[in-house]
Amino acid sequence: MLVMDKPSGERPLLDDAAPLLTDLLRNLKMRNYHFITPTPATHARVLARRRHERARSLRDIFGWSMRFAPSLLDPGLLCALEQAGLIVQEGDALISRVRVSSLGDDLFLHSAYPTSGQDAVFFGPDSYRFARLIEEELARCPQRRSARLVDIGTGAGVGGIVAAKACPFANIILTDINPAALHLARVNAAGAGVEASFHQAGDLAALDGAFDVALANPPYIVDGEGRAYRDGGGMHGGAVSIDMAGQAVPRLAPGGRFILYTGSAIVDGRDALRERLADLAHRQDCTLRYSEIDPDVFGEELETPAYEHVERIALVAAIIVRGA
Fold first, then answer.
1. What is the pLDDT of residues 282-315, one digit of tens each?
2. Which residue, 257, 268, 256, is CA-closest to 310?
3. For a Cys-Cys bond, which of 73, 175, 212, 318 suits 142, CB 3.0-4.6 Å?
4. Alpha helices in 3-157 (DSSP H)
5. How far is it, in rounded angstroms, from Cα 128 to Cα 286?
């Protein structure tokens, strides 16, 4: 059963809502729907400017998560969405419990704004950067049909779906500890025409064999509420990244790659995440390519106690490759 950002007393989304969600994506594509998801801070600022307005378009409903009048949706679609619990009453208006964002030619379902629930499924600017990194790294990808590619902690499915487009011969595996994420990733993959297998798991122990490509876009911020989609754990948010790398790198096939997009807290000019990844690569007879994508993000986090000794948070790309 899918649970996602539901207010107290509200029934959860049901697994049998998948066909309806697939139809929703198809319907929005036919209507040339397009929405680029900004940061939560930007989203909040835009909604603050429009706080006295109701939705005027599909983008307002499924992108900006604005309240809307029933007349704005086709009656048949509205009825089906309500029956599935995807549209709920809020005051004298309605609001969608899911958002839909554009990435290339595909649409991705994820949690409605604000993503405050413990089981929220996040999509945002990091998703776009992660997709670009994958496309660049997999410009030359395994071409044999036996190649295996795993997206660890897939969330809405961005990594696995983008990689599947780049590596059409690979067997795609998507994992996540959150059943809500896997539910939406499955719908998003179907909407993108991607075949994959889905596994609810917090690690790779349940999967046998080696991997030609492993992907990860883990959370990298310390979250006081411990929300899985946002909390990167110890090392000022770097612990989950190290854990995923520790799972994936020993499982790389000869010539295999681990592609990691994450953030790293810099303390006194030192990048502890880079040091730990370099040590892991060395111990596994692999090579590491490491670069900063953006030297300074989420500066507001430096005002919190968890970051009192941190001078900046950098977005980084780490590629660990096993020799052939």
1. 999 999 999 999 999 999 999 999 999 999 999 9
2. 268
3. 212
4. 18-30, 40-49, 58-62, 75-83, 125-137
5. 27
For residue 15, the model assigns a pLDDT of 56
Strands 197-200 and 211-216: unpaired
Round to whole Å and give the CA distance between 3 and 58.
24
Whether this model's pTM surpasses 0.90:
yes
What single DSSP character describes residue 169?
T
The two tokens of residue 32 are 């040339």
Angle at the Cα of 147 (from 142 to 148), degrees rounded to 5? 120
- The low-confidence residues of the chain, meaning pLDDT below 70, are 1-16, 143
Where does the chain hold its CATH 3.40.50.150 domain(s)? 125-322
CA–CA distances in Å: residue 35 to residues 67, 71, 127, 158, 255: 17, 21, 13, 15, 37
Q: What DSSP string runs through 22-53? A: HHHHHHHHHTT-------HHHHHHHHHHTTT-
